[in-house]
Amino acid sequence: MNPESHTHRSPSDETPRLALLALCLAMLLSSLGTSSANVALPTLARSLAGSFQAAQWVVLAYLVAITASIVTVGRLADLLGRRQVLQAGLLLFVLGSAAAGFAPSFAWLLAARVVQGLGAAAMMALTVAFVGELLPAEQTGRAMGLLGTTSAIGTALGPSLGGALLTWWGWRAIFLINLPLGVVALVVARRSLPADTVRNATGAGLDMPGTLLLALGLAGYALAMTLGRGHFGALNLALLVGAGVAAAMFAAVQRRAASPLLPLGLLRDAPFAASLLANFLVSAVLMATLAVGPFHLALALGLEPSAVGLVMSVGPVVSAFVGVPAGRGVDRFGAERTSLVALGSAALGALLIAVVPRSFGVLGYVGPLAMLTASYATFQAANNTAVMRRAGPQERGLVSGVLTLSRNLGLVSGTAVLGAVFAWASGAIDPALAEPAAVARGTEFTFGVGAVLILVGLFTVRSARARGSRVVARVSVAPSAAQGGS
Question: Most CB atoms within 10 A, among 220, 349, 441, 455?
Answer without folding.
Answer: 349
